[in-house]
């Protein structure tokens, strides 16, 4: 083993024939010599630059300069910057798209070296819009992480194209929200022109407002902005904010705002809230408790449709029971019966099915019970359910369907849940 491993490595590097590899190796040796406080590190970097200068291929020379500069900047930031700039001057002579690709590489290495301001300068030189804006967003993230909001603003202002401009604005808003700088967040928010990205920004606002435990007056400021935007055709922005706040548990506040809206907009937001809360049992229950009359029935429809998209859960049975007890709409009760039947709560399902008045819908309700009874092997129970439809036409039709399913099951088939589909076809047939 050599007595001075650094000096020996220095000597061996000179035997590397590939000029690119020799240059990069000298740079690495120089960096580790510097860390070990070996005076020869300066010579190593000098040799690295000399090897780079002898590379005949301009693209390879530029790559070598970037590599050497990456190590040199750790030793001497000013010398590293100078070498990065030499790489830049070589890159400027390249045709497209090589020029932009190499500028992107230069940017990435500058960013890794912590030289964000320099990286930003070179990013602006990239001609390809997509590549340039992707790089600018990377620089933006670094400035936001460092808390340099002034630089962040400059980048967002410099970006003209979508979606990068709005993405940058939202990232800036998120940082302001983390710092509870709500006034600044509002200012950036008001500059977003895209309706889609305004909605996304409002979702972020809703999450942060709740987690920041801010007073209601702050909520109201953002709602006022959204209301102002809705006048300009951006109703979805207000919708996103209120749904987001509802998901965060601010049901009472959201309901107070909804009173200020026209009925059509109110209904759309209520439906959106119902869909968003469909997997949050406690909040969904609280939300349903805040509704009355026709609004309750309309939301009940949406809620049941969403709940029926998933496997039934005992956790949500109390909510389904609540909907069944409060709603007088046959179509809602049918959905309640279907859910309870799927959950194996046949007694409760039977009780609600008995409240359905219309013959067609009553057949669907008891049909759901019959189908689920068959699934668990209760043939007598399935027949009893079918016989509960007293209307001659619909009762006969349902009994026919259930008997057919029983025979199909006996023949080794499966119980298909197609009662509603077949009832629709039968109703059309009777109309002819």
**First-to-last CA distance:** 99 Å
Indicate the radius of gyration in whole angstroms. Answer: 34 Å
Percent of residues in helices comes to over 70%
- Quote the average pLDDT: 86
Shape: elongated
Distinct helical segment count: 25
- SSE pattern, N- to C-terminal: HHHHHHHHHHHHHHHHHHHHHHHHH
Biggest sheet layout: none
By secondary-structure content and strand pairing, the structural class works out as: mainly alpha
Low-pLDDT windows of residues: none
Q: Find the count of extended strands (DSSP E, 2+ residues).
A: 0
- Content of β-strand: under 5%
Task: Summarize the SSE layout with pairings.
Elements: H1 5-13, H2 19-35, H3 41-53, H4 58-75, H5 77-91, H6 98-112, H7 116-123, H8 129-146, H9 149-158, H10 164-178, H11 182-189, H12 195-211, H13 216-231, H14 235-247, H15 251-258, H16 263-276, H17 281-289, H18 293-307, H19 317-326, H20 330-342, H21 346-353, H22 359-375, H23 379-387, H24 392-410, H25 419-431
What does it look like?
With 432 residues, the protein is mostly helical. 76% of the residues lie in helices and 0% in strands. It is built from 25 helices and no strands. The model has no long low-confidence stretch (mean pLDDT 86).
């Amino acid at each position: 083993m050599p007595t001075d491993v650094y000096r020996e490595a220095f000597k061996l590097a000179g035997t590397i024939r590939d000029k690119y590899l020799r240059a990069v190796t000298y740079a690495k040796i120089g960096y580790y010599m510097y860390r070990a406080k070996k005076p020869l590190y300066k010579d190593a970097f000098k040799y690295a630059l000399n090897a780079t200068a002898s590379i005949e291929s301009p693209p390879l020379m530029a790559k070598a300069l970037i590599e050497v500069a990456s190590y040199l900047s750790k030793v001497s930031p000013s010398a590293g910057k100078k070498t990065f700039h030499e790489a830049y001057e070589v890159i400027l002579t390249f045709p497209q798209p090589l020029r932009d690709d190499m500028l992107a590489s230069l940017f990435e290495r500058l960013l890794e070296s912590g030289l964000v301001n320099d990286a930003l300068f070179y990013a602006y030189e990239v001609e390809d819009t997509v590549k340039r804006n992707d790089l600018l967003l990377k620089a933006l993230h670094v400035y936001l992480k460092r808390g340099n909001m002034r630089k962040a603003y400059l980048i967002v202002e410099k970006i003209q194209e979508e979606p990068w401009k709005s993405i940058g604005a939202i990232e800036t808003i998120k940082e302001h929200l983390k710092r509870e700088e709500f006034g600044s967040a509002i200012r950036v928010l008001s500059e977003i022109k895209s309706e889609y990205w305004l909605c996304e920004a409002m979702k972020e606002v809703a999450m942060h407002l709740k987690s920041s435990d801010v007073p209601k007056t702050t909520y109201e400021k953002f709602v006022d902005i959204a209301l102002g935007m809705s006048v300009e055709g951006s109703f979805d922005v207000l919708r996103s904010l209120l749904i987001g706040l509802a998901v965060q548990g601010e049901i009472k506040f959201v309901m107070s705002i909804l009173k200020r809206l026209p009925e059509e907009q109110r209904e759309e937001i209520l439906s959106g809230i119902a869909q968003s809360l469909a997997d949050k049992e406690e909040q969904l229950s609280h939300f349903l408790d805040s509704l009355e009359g026709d609004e309750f029935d309309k939301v009940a429809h949406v809620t049941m449709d969403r709940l029926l998209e998933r496997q039934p859960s005992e956790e949500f049975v109390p909510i389904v029971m609540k909907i069944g007890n409060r709603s007088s709409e046959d179509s809602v009760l049918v959905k309640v019966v279907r859910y309870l039947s799927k959950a194996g709560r046949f007694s409760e399902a039977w009780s609600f099915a008995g409240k359905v008045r219309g013959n067609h819908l009553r057949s669907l309700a008891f049909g759901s019970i019959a189908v689920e009874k068959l699934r668990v092997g209760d043939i007598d129970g399935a027949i009893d359910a079918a016989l509960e439809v007293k209307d001659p036409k619909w009762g006969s039709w349902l009994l026919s369907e259930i008997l057919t399913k029983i025979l199909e099951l006996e023949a080794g088939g499966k119980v298909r849940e197609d009662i509603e589909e077949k009832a629709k076809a039968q109703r059309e047939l009777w109309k002819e």
